[in-house]
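Exercise 7.
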Amino acid sequence: MIIDAHQHFWNLDRVAYPWLTPDQGPIHRTFEEGDLQPDMDACGVEGTVLVQAADSYADTDYMLEVADRWPRVRAVVGWVPLTRPDEAAAALDRYRRDPRYVGVRHLIHDEPDPDWLLRPEVREGLDALAERELAFDVVAVLPRHLEHVPLLAERHPELRLVIDHLAKPPIAGRGREPWAGLLARAARHPNVYAKVSGLNTAADPETWTAAVLRPYVEHALELFGAGRLMFGGDWPISVLAGGYRKVWDETVKLLDDLAIPPGDRARLLGGTAADFYRIPDPV
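Solution. The predicted structure, written as C-alpha cells, is:
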C-alpha cells in the first residue's frame, strides 16, 4: 500500500489555526477530503497519515472525525499538552482507545523558546508518549531544533521520533551545513526516522525539480536508509509550491533517477510509515 506519511486537513469554521492568516494566500481556506481525493486517485496513493495543524484538542478531535468518514485516513498524529504531563497522560489514554491515533506533534517552531523541547515538563510529557508506545513528530525548522534530536533520542530510547520534512534543508540557497552534519548526528540513533516531505517549500517554489532535491534526499538515504525514511506530500502546504501532483511526480522521478530497488521504494512509499506508526491493517 502506498501511504502518504504527512498530510493535513483544516476547517476554518471548526478550528482556530493561529498561524493560518490571510497573508498565507491560497492555503487560507478550508481543505478537506473532497479537495484531496482526486489527486490521491491520480497518483495511486491509497492511504494517508493526517498530521496536526494546531496545538489544540479541537484540531485532534476534528481529524479523528474526518478519519471516521474517510477511510483513506489510516492514522492520525494529534496533539496533547506536553507541558502539562499529567493532563497529557490522561488525554493520551483517552485518545489511544482509537487505534488510528498513533502519535503526537507540537508546533515547536511557533514557540518563542528555541529550547522548548528540553523543558523538564516536556520531558515528562514525552515519557508519557514512550510509555504508551506512541510516536513523536519533531518539527525541526531551526538548526537549534535539529540539535535537540540526538539528546531526545538518548533521553527517550524507547520513543520513536520522526523528523518532519528532513528538517527543512537549505535547498533554496543550495546550501548544506549545518543541516547535513546535524542530520547525520540525529541519524546515528536507531529510534530516529525522517520524512522526505515538504522539500518543495524549502526550495524555489517556481523552479524546483527532482534534480534540485536530489543531493538532499541522497544524503538522507545514506544516513537513514529506506527503512527509516518515508514519503510525505505535505498537502495543502504543497499548494504554495506546485501542489500535490507535482510533489508526487517529482518524487517518483527522483526515485527512478536514483535507481532505488523495488523493496526500498516500497518502504519509502508506504512500508516505513506503516511500521513506524504501527498503522493497523484495514478491516
